[in-house]
Specification:
This protein has 1021 residues and is an alpha+beta fold. 19% of the residues lie in helices and 29% in strands. It has 18 helices and 52 strands. The strands form 12 sheets. The protein has a 9-stranded antiparallel beta sheet. Strands 1, 2, 3, 5, 7 and 9 form a 6-stranded antiparallel beta sheet that branches. A 6-stranded mixed beta sheet has the order 24-37-38-42-39-40. The radius of gyration is 31 Å and the shape is globular.
Length: 1021
Amino acid sequence: MLAVRFFSSFEEGDPRPLGAEIGPGPGRSPTAKAGVGFTGLKALRYAGAGQSRTLVFEVDIPVTEHTELSYVIFPESDEGPSYRSTLAALGVEFDDGTSTPEWTGGKALYLDQWNPVRRPLGAAAGRRITAILLTVPATPGPGEVTGWIDDVRIAERTPERRDAVDWVRTTRGTHSSGEFSRGNTFPATAVPHGFNFWTPVTDTSSLSWLYEYHRRNDERNRPVLEAFALSHQPSPWMGDRHTFHLMPGTGKPTSTVTGATFGHDNETDRPYYYAVRFDNGISAELAPADHAAIFRFTFPERRGWVRLGDAGGLRFDRARGAFSAYTTVRSRLSKGARRMFIAGTFDRPAAGGTRHLAFELDDGRTVELRIATSLISLEQARHNLEAEIPAGTAFERVRDHARERWQELLGRIEIEGASDDQLTTFYSNLYRLFLYPNSGHEETPSATETVRHASPVIRSLRPSTRTRTGAKVVSGPMSVNNGFWDTYRTTWPAYALLTPGRCGELIEGFVRQYREGGWIARWSSPGYADLMTGTSSDVAFADAYLKGVRGFDVEGAYEAALRNATVPPPNRAVGRKGLHESIFLGYTPTSTPEGLSWALEGCVNDFGLANFAEALGRHDEARYFRARAVTYANHFDVRTGFFQGRRQDGGWRWEPGEYDPELWGFDYTETNGWNMALSVPHDGGGLAALLGGRAALESKLDTFFATPETGAKPGSYGGIIHEMTEARDMRMGQYAHSNQPSHHIPFMYLHAGAPAKAQAVVREVLTRCYTGSEIGQGYPGDEDNGEMSTWYVFAALGLYPLAVGSPVYVLGAPLFARTVTHLENGRDIVIRASGDGPYVAGLRVNGRPHTRAWISHDELTSGAVLEFDLSETPSDWGTPPPSLTEGDRPPRPLTDLTGHATSDDGTDVRALFDDTSRTQVVFRAREPSVEYTVDGPPRPLEIYTLTSGTRGAPAAWVLEGSADGRNWTVLDEREDQSFRWRRQTRPFALAEPAAYPRYRLRITESGGGRLSLSQWELLCR
């Protein structure tokens, strides 16, 4: 609760500053409206070339334990930038002549953006504030230090008690743009993992930035809402789909978009309830159900109207106050989206024109609208409306039911010892975690198929009508809206830990994509969007299975991952790019754009798939994928000490004198060589060995965090993209917490045997990179489907899923004094932290000393009490976590034997060994024998692979070895084999490695037409 004692935004009627300049506000900002203050038309300007201390206000205010000085500050950039302007600060002077300590929080401030600052004054309780001072310290560098200050406030901020859900601010992350992201979110009002979002909109013409906190303010610097909208946006970069707008008004109805101004102080932004009171006197409220929602509009007079946005097939039943419509709106990346149907009913009859309904309110000033949607049909939309919000349902009932659903989830984690801002941050992040993925299915009235969905992945040429979709409607659940390259890192491990039951349901919804369309989307929006690298559902779902999640088609999930990993995709929107040759080369060549990122993400996914295969008893595949998971070593250029791209002939993209790890793009996705140099989260021990040992890894990390990101080396991007600027303004060296490729890097210090350095970095990120919740900020970059939010949740608890695809968490210093996580199995994880500081001095688990910097999933979910001793002093507590590569030797990927071959049926078989599955050999005989002679000394053969062609496939065979070409020894024999897909690579492991100069593959049975094979590969150490 806030009780204001002093306030000035430098407007007419506000207290006037002494000896300080008032001006029109900053001239430019990537996220805010220019030429105005933060909340008004004016702001205080600061400028100086040297140290200064300026009296701004004389006051006389008593100090209590809850007194706080707050303001917003806009440090302006200079050449460099040098960030000198972030060191300016307001402080106070007390009646005894003392003043607030020197400001040390400048590193938390962003240039050319408004930043909120709070300075608690409770330590001076009993004194009186006599002055508010502006200090600008002496800072080296040319020119003046300049910036702006607004909304200076001294207030009593008393601690509040709220339920978890009521700490959430859905506007966090909206103070953003395409130029600079502080989250790039929108205030979605919805139920967890719901079918629809409902949101206020500041720009109805955009499918990307739906709601901007400040940048689209009007000429008086008042925020403007143009509409309330139905939305399904997974990310502004993906764009929205199936939008539908509505907006209340008074006076003469308008058919064009006109906005209404408001103040953020008159806005309530909760997951279960959005409300705003406009300056024109109208109030609007919104509460969500799954496929439906309810609006309540309160007008200042006894008449009003609601304008409905552009939609197809809009029809009215004015006597009932009802309407129906459909929307076909979709962004370029909204692949698989067809038509959504809308049914709405007001609580009274209406009159009106073509785009609005008008109401005479003789019995009051309130109008309620129940509205629902369907992807199947208009009839189904009406069914969804009556099923979820029947006629006569009170607004409060819908709101409270949504609130209960959110509270049940968010309340599973209880926190002690957190500030109000930390509680807002933590629970708002949990909200983002459970907002995505979304359901794409509906409860239908059918007696046999109660859950059905309009498939976004089955191709259908049937046209949609005004009342029914042309998409294929099939039974079962469907999950949509997820970018797995982002979410595999934190959100899916969080679902497995916190909501394993729902996790299984969500996975099942994505496995449906595989069963219907043959693949799981890399980026589901809702179907197959060609975006980002890696088929990361592979490792995400493997991780969930290994942590005990069930309730989904396990074989289907494994098959989908297996297809991703072993079959070249039919188009760019699915599967792994470059796979037709990377499997056989052992690296992804530069002919595949961003090939290094594809390669390293492939290793992460193969690691999870190996563990998945082992758990399912598929031992040959487990051995093969485990070997593939270390092929990152094939991209390591020992000359430069970095991973980089290789040409198809094996040569490197850059020679040592040309290579610059600060250059963005080329082989790297949304990052540079520095960040990819540490992108082996599944095998930190192997990376350390590759670099020269744990000390070498520590040194590499030290240099990484000490090398500034300039944001000025765009490389193949050809220009500065927002990720570069955000990374620069993190001011943590090359570490870019603003984007997902960096998120695991601090924890790699654990593999270097330097846990205290990991703890220091993580604590800095937690305390300064998630700030600004109260003015629509909260993130240092894009908050993608809950991933950046969940990083905070895990790290604040003192946990992190570093090696996704294994049931292990690494440990760090908890942020809060005590947390209790209530698990679905009825057990609790209790985490206590005693002492101050970011460093772990010791840990007890269930009362026993714990010396490992990691803990298993089973240990946690069996119910555990973790008691951390924290310190201001670094320690060496915590032995390194498990790693795929053990010992000090660098990883040694399997490599193919080189040689030459002949077939006994006279077929030319050279294409079997050309390292691409785009070619094939079609044999003359149904049961040929292919003999392979090794060039050079023989090496022990461990695994061989066969890749099917496009025609008949082998069903049984014998692999033999010979020292002389006359006497043959059976090494492996297979029967009743099948290749599920064309051009599939299948591995077969020998029981014991065997080294021979000659090998022979005798096909003893084949089927499906003339026998064809694309590749035969012999893999050795």
